[in-house]
Amino acid sequence: MTSLDPVTLAVLKGRLEQIADEMDATLYRSAFNPIIAEARDACHGLYHAETGATLVQGTKGLPIFVGAMSFAVQAVIRRVQNGTPLEPGDTFIFNDPYEGGTHLNDFRLVRPIFRDGQVFCWIASVGHWLDIGGNVPGGYNPRATESHQEGVRIPPVKLIRAGAMQQDILDILNANSRVPNSNWGDLNGQLNALDLGERRLVQLIDEHGEAKLQSAFAALADRAAALMEAEIRTLPEGRYSFEDYLDNDGVVDERLTIALDMTIRDGRMMLDFSRSSAACLGPINISRATSVAACYVALKHAFPDVPANAGVLRPIEFVIPDDTVLGAGPPRPMAGYTETILRLIGVIFGALGKAKPERATAAPFGTINALSLSGQRRDGTRWVMFSFFGGGFGGNPETDGLHHANNPISTATIPPAEILEAAYPVMFTQWALRPDSGGVGQHRGGVGAVYEIEALSPGTTEVALLGERGRYAPFGVTGGGEGALTRFAWQTESGWDTPPMASKVVGVKIQAGQRVRLESPGGGGWGDPSKRPKAAIARDIRLGFVSPEAAARDYGYRE
Amino acid sequence: MTSKPIVGVDVGGTFTDLFLFDPAQNAFRTAKVPSNRGDEAVGFMNGLRALGGPAGFEAIVHGTTVGTNALLERKGAKLGVITTAGFRDVLEMRRRDRPNTWGLWGEFHPVAERDMRIEVPERTLANGTIHTRVDIAAVQDAAHELLSAGAEACAIVFINSYANPANERAAAAAVRAIWPNPHVSVSSEILPEIREFERASTTALNAYLQPVVANYLGKLEGALNQAGFGGRFHIVQSNGGIMSTATARGIPARTALSGPAAGVIAAAAIARAAGFENAITCDLGGTSFDVSLVTGGRMELAAQATIDFGLVIRSPMIEITTIGAGGGSIAHVDRGGLLQVGPESAGSRPGPVCYGQGNTRPTLTDANVVLGRINADRPIGGALSRLDVEGAKAAIAQHVGQPLGLDAMAAAEAIVRVANAKMAGAIRLVSIERGHDPQKFVALPFGGGGALHVGALIKEVGLKAALVPRFPGVTSAIGCVIADVRHDQVRTLNLSLDGLDSAALDARMVEEANSARSVVEAAGLPVARTDIRFELDMHYAGQTHTVGVPLPVHVIGGTTGVSEAIIRSAFEAAYQQAFSRLLPGLPIRIVTLRTAAIGIRPDFDLAALAPAADATLDAAARGARQVWFDGAWHAATVWSRLDLPVGALVHGPAILEQPDATVVVDPDLVARVDRFGNLIIERE
């Protein structure tokens, strides 16, 4: 293999990242459903010809996919090894969460790039489709006990065969969704992204030659590994343990533990999740691929300078037993995978904070609070308003936590209330920051939000929530306090009602003029609250982030 | 037609540049004076005096960064917000984003604190129905409360006011009756467009800037009056058009990118005159490299810009792509062993190592000095007498050479190569990535630094040529003089294309055109004609993003003649261009109507800038010096750029020097002087 001078390598790195970024941008702009177009629940990258390892990934894509996509490419590589013929112009499609991670809504397209009759590398696209069948519109069925209740499961099959689109595959996809047009639009957006990525990549290979690029791939992975190892060596050697909990799985009302034992030794990090709960009946299981991807996300937040390629994971060892909630297989339901990975990311932050308290970050709010409202319009057409909501970030050594932020697994922006009101028969009566929801501390947790929505539909509006943090609050670090819990309630004729399982509910029915209210958690606090400057507390009171009563109780504050 | 001079004034962070054009003589003059940060009027007036004015001037057009700086430094007015019950936190909740993709630290400070945002009972629904009439007494109470809390400006933002502004207008009238100054911004006046955060942010930032900009303009106008100036005084907007100071006082948010927009306007005109319809402007500053695209002689506009995290202004603005690579960008080898240039910067203070002001980490400028590309004995700007070459060399050897196993010269060349690759990436982003063929574009550097790198960039990206304007440092000031008068309006429509009531749309378009045209006419500058341009934001039903669809229609005899068929074919052309795949059979929607009135200014003959007729090659020659290219020292010829005659050919390796820029001609390139005095650099 040709060895590359460091300058050429830096140049090629920039060109490759640009290709992946451009694929991301193309899909965002042409996607149909707002979960891709606004919330950027999608990702693109280049993957190793034989191992499927991530070579380069877009910087704007959903962080969780950065780790998960190589598993998807590996699933295709296995098919080919087992005899599926592969030719130039092929493109695979699938959403199997056991082969490639995450959940059924995430459709993956994987395409080989051939040079001289050989696979040079793979390019791939993943995006969250709005609806893929199943018992609950949108797929977030908090009561699912097997994958088949969540939607249709497509194994890796060829959508395009040697350049020819397979209409029969499209027909199967269309027949299995409540919103086939939306899915078709998103599929076209993903194909646009792949076509563009292929064009750009071929141009780059033509310019520099196959050998030079292959050397660059190898060198970039080596450098990423070296960088990650250097970061690990900044942590004191030892074993650091941390646990956090999920309210329940939506089916059985028992808490689930996510437990981590992190060992730092000789520039390597071992992440052992063996003490975590067993796989569960409800839809918050995740596969090993998802767990590894989530670890990657947490580490990248802790060490933002490490690049987005597989080399980063080289100095890391994973222990994720198959019988735990973090290593689940078929037919375990997985629609609520986000809640579990958020808890997993949290325990990594927690353990890192124990290893190096001066760099500790308190827990972010830790739930996507997937809320769906649905019903029928006056003209009889069906509507589904499905959205994720924000909350507070944790306090940290430098600042208070950010108010109303997005989850660490995503860079999603929230759809504006006006866009939602224009599209669905609802009226927001509150869209506000939530006082007293940030954990106390020298640096306070950011506050969560209150969203109150009134139904305008003439008939019944159905409500479902797949949330978390209804019982176990976002933790503080180095003496900081917990953020507030999720609260969810809906109006009935006799007042307000709340979910029996704290944060998950389906089948709630409200009538026109009645409301639902979701209050999201704030972040945990950082540091001893008695060290918070008096002026900062006075300011929090003046701005209404902390009530005078809470200031007196939690900070001992008096005017 | 006027015969008195017109003057462009570009106030930058360090210098104020002026350009005077005298139509009677077809002659020009330039001036450069130090800016006076915090009291920009001083530098402004000093500059005018240096040009012998302002008493005899016909018009002064100004590109300003006062608004941008006030936003970045949070030095706007004390602001109050009056808004719909339940929504006072919209400004602070943003779109639920975070400052960086990776890493969860950081905070956000809104321009109006939470206790300065007051809710009032009122509600309009998405379809325009009034659900709750506005409680005027509550609005009056809110205004009094804000005033007694010290508010200097007020923003009024009601939910769904884009769909029906009645409640918001009633509240605005009530507030304006009470408010002691004109600094009241109303969302349905500033931006009648769906999406409450973007509308609220634009309106609030506008109100936040109103007192700052009004105060600044008042000061300038006072000084101009005192100096006997009797002409017109105008401001360049972020969309590249100019507006009256009355409009600027009302909509100061439109000045956010005033200075850079003026530069791109001039760049487009210079490129067009030189025979190039397509150009990529390159502005290499101390910390960043900014590029913008000019296609078919026009600059590209973006629908909105984020000035800083959470500070969004939605209004048509020149589209600037910025990357963190400037002369002060620090070169280092990361822990993975990879050479990086930027984004960390030494800025202008302490600046590069060679400035000798205390920085010890090497920058891009240090590399250029060590390679002999910048003349160490004649630093640009004139503040330093000599640059420290040996200090720069030692820093490069230590921080880049040693870790990479390279000697100082090879390391310096590596820094320039990596920086060039980053800049090339920015150019690729705005050209190739948008489907443009780089062969059809010239790179046009303005400001001082770009000309050092532009030769390498045309090779790296495969551009047709580089076009270095005769006076790179005053490009923005020239832009002020030649910019058109412009006014943009936007209106959310939310219509289906199928079964469109085209008569109603036509009436709407004519109404918008008339009101935009009247703003342009009120500016009072001589224009050759006023053009109206219509653009629709459209998409397939279900998509959230839109594509801009320019409509090929004009107002003739009180009608645009718009039809469903015209719109459909324009949409399909625009969609195909953007995404290549049409989605036949899906319903199409019209979201927003954008109307621009453009008062086309009389042509300005750039030949006025040409070199003197008696210039000769011999008189411009300044000998030769050693410059490092491709791993070895070369004897590069040195020229006084401004003394070169029209038609002069200079083969690389060569260095062309002028007071505010250094041009590098690489060994395999050739530069020629065109009839305007521009330098065109091409492959041999």
Largest sheet of chain B: 9 strands, mixed
Report the span from N to C terminus of chain A. 71 Å
What's the tally of helices of chain B? 17
Based on DSSP secondary structure assignment, what is the total number of beta strands of chain B? 33
Low-confidence stretches of chain B at least 5 residues in length (pLDDT < 50)?
none
Arithmetic mean of pLDDT of chain B: 90
Q: With helices defined by DSSP (H or I, 4 residues minimum), what is the helix count of chain A?
A: 11
Greatest chain-chain interface? Answer: A-B, 85 and 66 residues
Structural class of chain A: alpha+beta
The whole-number mean of residue pLDDT values of chain A reads: 92
DSSP strand (E) fraction of chain B? 25-35%
The coarse silhouette of chain A is globular
Classify the fold: give the CATH topology of the domain at 484-600 in chain B.
Dna Ligase, domain 1
* Strand coverage percent of chain A: 15-25%
Largest pleated sheet of chain A: 7 strands, antiparallel
Quaternary state reads heterodimer
Report the radius of gyration of chain B as a whole number of Å. 26 Å
Give the count of structural domains of chain A.
2
Termini distance of chain B?
Answer: 45 Å
**Number of strand elements of chain A:** 20
Domain Hydantoinase B/oxoprolinase (chain A): 5-529
GO molecular function, one term (chain A): 5-oxoprolinase (ATP-hydrolyzing) activity
GO biological process, one term (chain A): glutathione metabolic process
Protein name (chain A): Hydantoin utilization protein B
Explained architecture:
The complex is a heterodimer of chains A (559) and B (684). Chain A has two domains: 6-226, no CATH class; 360-559, no CATH class. Helix content of chain A is 30%, strand content 23%. Chain A contains eleven helices and 20 strands. The longest helix of chain A is centred in the middle third of the chain and has 29 residues, at 180-208. The model of chain A has no long low-confidence stretch (mean pLDDT 92). With 684 residues, chain B is α+β, with helices and mostly antiparallel strands. Among the domains of chain B are: 6-71 and 214-258, 2-Layer Sandwich (Nucleotidyltransferase, domain 5), CATH 3.30.420; 484-600, Dna Ligase, domain 1 (2-Layer Sandwich); 610-623 and 635-683, no CATH class. Helix content of chain B is 30%, strand content 29%. The longest helix of chain B has 31 residues, at 196-226. Chain B is globular, with a radius of gyration of 26 Å. Classes of the chains: A alpha+beta (559), B alpha+beta (684). Chains A and B meet through helix 1, helix 5, helix 6, helix 9 and strand 14 of A and helix 3, helix 7 and helix 12 of B. Chain B: Residues 7-177 form the Hydantoinase/oxoprolinase N-terminal domain.
